[in-house]
């Protein structure tokens, strides 16, 4: 159930289900019944309900929900965007079963206990304007809670964008699979609570269309979680190298080091310029320290110390030095995480970085936030597009996994797969949190987790750590939250007692 289907993919699934013998009106009957069931469960005290129906099948779901709510004893009014005669197909059938009068859609709603928004769903084709926009504004200012059918009207299901204006829902009831627009901002915020219902379309039918976008949930990456076995020593559990900044800029790298160590890397080494050595040495206990002043030094250390994953960027400074170090590290066999200054150092020179990435056979993860993303890829990607589209393009262009950070972090792989996270609490936006994230990614890469799964897992774990900690979080708190989260992913290790006799 973690696939996210665009409205176009959802239409294909609907068509397949209908061709397989589930009539469209039967799907609509179930969808409308689920909306009513959700309302009866969550808004049991509502007496006066206003159902707003659009001209398409979203409206059809609304007519059916209205019937069920009335049968359950609620006082239901239905306003329709078009007259009965103008409805077609399944929506017309659904409206026939609503025998009470249809009111003409208007802004004169009164203040019902609940408004059901069945104006626009997957069929949104253009920006909402004119009288429909006035209705949406009136709903949003009415003070009545709103349950949206499939999507809040005005939200683009593929991108999460507000097309002109959109309903702010308390709850959104959707069917079969969630859509990217339920996960991407601002759509996610306007959905309120999201409820997903089955309407009788099988997983096999969904599988047929081969969705490539996923909700970032443990089921997406858990099968790739690194195994821990007794017969493994620390060298088998991967060795992370973290390139540090100079004497006054080692904090970011130390956060990454702690993230990598807590994630289970067997060894972690700070790769520091000589000037930082006396600052770093007393600040490291488990992690080791090696001096690297040049790209050559870094390359040698990666090979000699068998470093399996390298983080570069946090606190390393923007400029020629970091650029050279990045290109040097990309030429090694280590998996690489490029963050912060490692990305910004290629502003205006992205072609240099992309050329190195394209010929690189080893796993690479780029972790830009919005500013870094746009600085790096300016002019290389289409001007418009959702965060999801842009991230996918970037991953293809860079032949690398790209993690486009934010409250709705997207991870995309060059093969087109993408995940969208929705579990980061607002207080995760704090200085240094991104540095810890790079360490978690490197810790997983070093243990052999594939890059798309490692980046997606790290994003989820990072969000969960922040949510578990709660407000007041600072980046330094994140690594200590990891053990209780990681515990649930550890694949069984044998701890049977050979001396026990039962
Ligand atoms: N399996 C399922 O998910 C099912 C979903 N169902 C529901 O059907 C809708 C999609 O229905 P569709 O008829 O394709 O589209 P809409 O009802 O969302 O809208 C089409 C309607 O609206 C007009 N329109 C488009 N954009 C605008 C605009 N900006 N302003 C005004 N009017 C606009 C367009 O011209 C059409 O007339 C899906 O969301 C579910 O709710 C089914 O119940 C079956 C199962
Ligand atoms: K809707």
UniProtKB/TrEMBL annotation:
AMP binds at residues 405-409, 434. Binds 1 potassium ion per subunit. SUPFAM superfamilies: Ribokinase-like, YjeF N-terminal domain-like. Residues 10-207 form the YjeF N-terminal domain. The keyword Isomerase applies. (6S)-NADPHX binds at residues 57-61, 121-127, 150, 252, 315, 369, 435. Its cofactor is Mg(2+); K(+). InterPro entries: Carbohydrate_kinase_pred_CS, CARKD, Nnr, Ribokinase-like, YjeF_N_dom, YjeF_N_dom_sf. It catalyses: (6R)-NADPHX = (6S)-NADPHX; (6R)-NADHX = (6S)-NADHX; (6S)-NADHX + ADP = AMP + phosphate + NADH + H(+); (6S)-NADPHX + ADP = AMP + phosphate + NADPH + H(+). Keywords: ATP-binding, Isomerase, Lyase, Metal-binding, Multifunctional enzyme, NAD, NADP, Nucleotide-binding, Potassium. Its EC number is 4.2.1.136, 5.1.99.6. One of its GO terms (biological process) is nicotinamide nucleotide metabolic process. The keyword NAD applies. In the C-terminal section; belongs to the NnrD/CARKD family. In the N-terminal section; belongs to the NnrE/AIBP family. This is Bifunctional NAD(P)H-hydrate repair enzyme. The lineage of its organism: Bacteria, Pseudomonadati, Pseudomonadota, Alphaproteobacteria, Rhodobacterales.
């Amino acid at each position: 159930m973690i696939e996210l289907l665009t409205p176009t993919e959802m239409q294909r699934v609907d068509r397949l289900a209908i061709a397989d013998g589930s009539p469209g009106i039967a799907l609509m009957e179930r969808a409308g019944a689920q909306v009513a069931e959700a309302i009866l469960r969550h808004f049991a005290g509502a007496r006066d309900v206003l159902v707003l129906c659009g001209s398409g099948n979203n409206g059809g779901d609304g007519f059916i929900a209205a019937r069920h709510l009335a049968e359950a004893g609620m006082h239901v009014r239905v306003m329709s965007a078009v007259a009965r005669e103008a409805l077609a197909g399944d929506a017309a059938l659904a409206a026939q079963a609503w025998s009470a009068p249809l009111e003409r859609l208007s802004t004169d709603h009164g203040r019902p206990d609940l408004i059901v928004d069945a104006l626009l769903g997957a069929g949104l084709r253009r920006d909402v304007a004119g009288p429909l926009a006035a209705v949406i504004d009136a709903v949003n200012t009415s003070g009545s809670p709103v349950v949206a059918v499939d999507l809040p009207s005005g939200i683009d299901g593929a991108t999460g964008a507000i097309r002109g204006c959109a309903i702010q829902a308390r709850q959104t009831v959707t069917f079969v699979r969630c859509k990217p627009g339920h996960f991407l901002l601002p759509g996610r915020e306007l959905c309120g609570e999201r409820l997903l219902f089955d309407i009788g379309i099988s997983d096999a039918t969904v599988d047929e269309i081969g969705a490539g976008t996923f909700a970032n949930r443990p089921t997406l990456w858990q099968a790739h979680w690194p195994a821990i076995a007794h017969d493994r020593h620390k060298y088998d559990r991967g060795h992370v190298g973290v390139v540090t900044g100079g004497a006054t800029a080692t904090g970011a790298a130390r956060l990454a080091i702690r993230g990598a160590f807590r994630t289970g890397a067997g060894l972690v080494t700070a790769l520091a310029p000589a000037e930082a050595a006396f600052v770093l040495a007393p600040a490291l206990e488990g992690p080791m320290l090696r001096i690297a002043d040049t790209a050559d030094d870094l390359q040698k250390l990666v090979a000699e110390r068998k470093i399996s994953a390298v983080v570069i960027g946090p606190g390393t400074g923007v400029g020629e030095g970091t650029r050279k170090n990045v290109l040097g590290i990309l030429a090694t066999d280590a998996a690489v995480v490029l963050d912060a200054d490692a990305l910004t150092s290629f502003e205006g020179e992205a072609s240099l970085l992309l050329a190195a990435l394209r010929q690189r056979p080893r796993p690479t993860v780029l972790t830009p936030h919005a500013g870094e993303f746009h600085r790096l890829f300016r002019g290389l990607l289409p001007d418009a597009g959702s965060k999801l589209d842009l991230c996918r393009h970037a991953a293809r262009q860079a032949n690398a996994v790209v993690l486009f950070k934010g409250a709705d972090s997207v991870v995309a792989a060059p093969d087109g797969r993408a995940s969208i996270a929705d579990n980061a609490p607002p207080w995760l936006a704090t200085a240094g949190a991104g540095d810890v994230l790079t360490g978690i990614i490197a810790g997983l890469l070093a243990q052999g987790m594939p890059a798309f799964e490692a980046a997606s897992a790290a994003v989820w774990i990072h969000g969960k750590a922040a949510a578990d900690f709660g407000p007041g979080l600072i980046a330094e708190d994140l690594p200590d939250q990891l053990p209780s989260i990681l515990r649930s992913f550890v694949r069984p290790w044998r701890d049977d007692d050979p001396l026990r006799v039962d």
